[in-house]
Known about the structure:
Oligomer: heterodimer
Number of strands of chain B: 10
CATH class of the largest domain in chain B: Alpha Beta
CATH superfamily of the largest domain in chain B: P-loop containing nucleotide triphosphate hydrolases
CATH architecture of the largest domain in chain B: 3-Layer(aba) Sandwich
CATH architecture of the domain at 16-150 and 164-242 in chain A: 2-Layer Sandwich
Order of helices and strands of chain B: HHEHEEHEHEHEHHEEHEE
Number of strands of chain A: 17
CATH superfamily of the domain at 16-150 and 164-242 in chain A: Reverse transcriptase/Diguanylate cyclase domain
Helix content of chain B: 25-40%
Distance between the termini of chain B: 69 Å
Amino acid sequence: MRNVPSSAGGTPDATRGFITRSRGAAEPLHAGDETVTSVLLDIARMVSPRVAARSRYQIVIDVEGLERLVGDPRAIGERLRQAAEDRGIAPVHVAVAGTCTAAMLLAAARAGVSVVPAGGEADALAPLPLRTLAVLASEGIEVRRQKTEDRRQNSTPEPRIPNPESRELAPGAQRLAPSPESRLPRRSPEESGRAKAGIPSPDSLAVVARWGLRTLGELAALPAAELSERLGQDGVRWQRLARGEDSGPLMPALVEEPFEASLELEWPIDGLEPLSFVLSRLLDPLCQRLEYRDRGAAVLHLRLRLVTRALHIRSLQLPAPMRDPKVLRTLLLLDLESHPAPAGIDAVTVAIDPTPGRIVQESLLTRAMPAPELISTLVARLQALMGDGRCGSPALVDSHRPGAFSMRPFVVHQDEGRRQKSEDRRQNQEARSQKPEAVASSQYSVASTRNPEPRIPSPGELAPSAKSRAPSVCLRRFRLPIPARVLMDGTRPISVRTDRLALAGGRVQAAAGPWRTSGEWWKTPAAPAGAQPASPPRRAGWNRDEWDVALSDGGLYRIFEDRDTGRWFVGAVVD
Amino acid sequence: MPATCRADVEALLRAKKLDRTLVPVTKGSGISVAAETMTTGLTLLDQQLGGGLPLGHFSEVVGPRSSGRTSLLMAMLAVTTSRGELAALVDTFDMLDVESMAAAGVRLDRLLWVRGETSTSAFPPATAGRRQPGADRAIERALKATNLVLQAGGMSLVALDLADAPIQALRRIPMTTWLRLQRVIEGQPTAAVVTGTVPMSRSAGGVTLELTAGARRLALGASSQNPGLGNAPFPGIESDVRIQRARLVPGMGAPVRLTAAAQVA
């Protein structure tokens, strides 16, 4: 039976080249596997810009229409093989066929250069052993896994251990039989990645092998309907691959485009105003390119070469992808206000780490959140005014230290409305589960009504958590507690005085306490620079007795006695 | 003749968009009561205010120390942030307690907290004299920060905390500063609140809420009169909230009781 490849992966007369490197044959010239991949990509891009990496050692090339430029398919294959030899990663397998799948299978099975004319893929693949298909089972998943690892270990310089499954035919093909883990009903991340890549499960391939089929031609000759009955869609997919049909179009990888622009200045500039014009000139085309590529800036780098030949480098981590040149310029200028260049500027370089653009789905029912560009600019302006670390979102910390908190960047989530809605729903469900009588009555009302009308919540119900919460007493803390003079009557304070004009103190009218609190006594802070070695170490912890007192001046205060020193302080005002 | 002159002046003010500021609200003035409001978190107070604090105006929460100004402000922030909206708090002397904010129900991740200088500038030693340049500087920065936040927009509630600012320093703020801030917020779907000791900055359509701490003393007195209550937990505070001034609110009712319970650790 002769099977003509369909046009799933392109036109029938389209030609695909496939190049793979035989890892076991020679010692690699480059140590890192990523380097081998990049060399393979470089070699592939010598003949065609449409190139896709299927795994670390497998590259697919669209060589259609290159006859007049490079030569016939065999000449193209020879050129690729020669280039790989010149770059020191030989030997490589090269195959040219009408579909990606056929080229990949041929390159995996045969050494050297293999060329199959368009339409003859099925015939060429028929004698290949069935285990050749394993190379497809490993590709795709590996690329996804590689991306995940890259994301996770973004800054880890360790070389990655190559996955044995991703090697060339022989080792991969020996793993045709499914591993015990793969028989588990629960889908592993690898399986889900394979499903997303359109690669069928190897379990069904192992079943086919147990049927006694040995070659791709035997699998391709099976009746598709009966194969589907026995193995499901996985079996049909394996059969299509055995015939050399593509499961999807070739997705060429884009060349990583550096988003960087520099400007050498004829005369050194000093100050932010002239620099603003230079930044505009650099950022405008950069942001235009970002827009063309549907990218946004994740990190903004500014390198200023000074007249002293020194470099003044600033990097801004942006909370959301941005490509508005005015916003980026403002952020850079505000940062330079806080961290100015120490000398005149000779050259300016702006580099952007790109990231996929932001997609925002606004809601008609909730108030639109302000754009991240607006918030970033606002926070940068506020930090320039108030100082670093004085602006952001407060956060609680896991500590019993009175008044402990931390600051986090103020980030606006664009899907805040949806998050709030789901949160409200969750809270309502929790509230219902805590009130069985209320649930029972609502069930009754639903059961007694044939077509219950949807209930429209009143505006007051939009904030159930806050509405149900009674106001609580708030403290106003003195970050530096104010020293106080406290008179005691036995164990209770009767008078509190300070030397501050606005906090004179007075007679104690009511008092509650004491509450003893201590902690972090085991910690010793680092000694400040220039401290004498003989000086006693400072304490990092706290050890105090706290009182809440109402004074005759009308105020309620939280005072405490430092138990280590015996000194009294006013720690907070109740308001 | 005087009526004609008055009509002309009001028409000119209306043309300059100053009618809300300078023209009294009467039946024939053509100025409508503010329709958009933001709840304060106290139902009775909202009813008296006709829905809550008016949007697009500066309102005030004033009262003496420990009268519950911060508790009321936190209740407003809690209501705003729990609706999924954003709020900003300009803390002039960096005095607010994060644990109290969280206990009051404020969603901290939706709050932009701008921390001013430390409280030392508001409470200088008596030896430093009456002149307090640190407080002046802190207030000036806080006003600039408030201006930036209001100009940026996007916040549902912007609060400026001047509760511990010395009165002398507040009196040195030029009136034009408040007018400028009021012009910035005009027409925005944002409510602005200033907390302080005395009324200082209410805009024409805003309200002034005054808190008195008389009832609070009773709450504490109950515990102080019991000698066996030495280690009893602090009961909390009670205050009366009264609408002192509200130009666009039709009527003012009885004071609303604010009961803020202490959080038990």
